[in-house]
Amino acid sequence: xxxxLMNPIQSVKAAFVKQxxxxxxxYRVRINKSLIAIKYLLRSVMPFxxxxxxxxxxxxxxxxxxxxxxxxxxxxxxxxxxRAPGNNYMxxxxxxxxxxxxxxxxxxxxxxxDIADDVFCVLIDESGDVAGKEQMAIVVRYxxxxxxxxxxxxxxVSVKETSAKSLKEVLEKMLSVNGLSLSSIxxxxxxxxxxxxxxxxxxxxxxxxxNPSAYYVHCFAHQLQLALVACAQAHKGVSGFFGNVNILxxxxxxxxKRQELLRDKQVAEFAQLIEDGEIETxxxxxxxxSIARAGDTR
Length: 298
Hints:
Blueprint: H1 8-43, H2 62-73, H3 75-82, H4 93-115, E1 120-128, E2 134-143, E3 149-159, H5 164-177, E4 185-190, H6 194-197, H7 203-210, E5 215-218, H8 220-234, H9 236-253, H10 256-276
Parallel strand pairs: 1-4, 4-5
Antiparallel strand pairs: 1-2, 2-3
Helix pairs in contact: 1-2, 1-3, 1-4, 2-3, 5-7
C-alpha cells in the first residue's frame, strides 16, 4: 500500500516504522564494525588509543585506524557512517571500554565452561601499579576435554590489603562470581613472599586448611627470575654495570637540585628532538617523571 492511499496518521506511522527499522539496521552495522575492530585488537594484544586522535591526525591510533580501514573495505559500513550523526559513530572511548568488557566477560565464561566441573590450579601474584594501588592477578591452569594443559588469565582485582586473609577473600569472591570454588583447587603457585607461601599464616596455608588437596608449588616464573638475578650478580660486568647505575641514581635522588638540573637537561633534549622531528608529540607523551631505583626485577 502506498502512502498516498493512507490517511495522514497511517502515513506518519508507516514512515516512523520505516525510519526506525533503518536506524536499527544502521545501529547494528555501527556496533558490529566497532566490535570487529575490538576483537582484532584483543586477539593481537594491541592498544586501542592513540596519542593524537584528532580528525586531521596522521595516525589516530589502532582502533580508529582499523575502523577507517573497515570503512574503506566495506561500502555498506562507509554508507552507514557517512549518514550517522557526528556523536553516534560508536567509537567513543567509553564505548570501546564497554565492548572490551563485554568481550572479556564472554572469554571468561568460555574459560569456565572449558574447566566445567573439573579440578584446576591457581597462579596468583600481587604488586602495586603506577597509581600506588595493590593489584592481584589470578591465572587458572587446567586440563581441557582434549587433554591439553591450558593456562588462562581469569582476572585482576584491586586489593586494599595484602594480608593472606584479605587475598583469600578476594580469591574466593573471584572464583564464586565465575562459578568456581576452592574445593576444586588442586595446586597453588605463588612467589616466596611470606603472605603467600607462609607455612603458618600464608595464603597457601589458609586454602589448605579448607582443601588439603591444594598442593603448593613455588611459581616457576619466579624461580626463573631468581635464577636470572643470581646469574647477573655472579657476572662481574653485569653486576658492575647495575652497581654503577644504582650509585648514579642514588646520587641524583639525594638532592632536589640535582634532580632539577636533570629535568632541565631532559626538557632541552626533548625540545631539540621535537624540533628535529625525531619524536612524536601528543596527549600523554614526553611527561616529566622521577628516577626509579633499579630493583632486581628491573
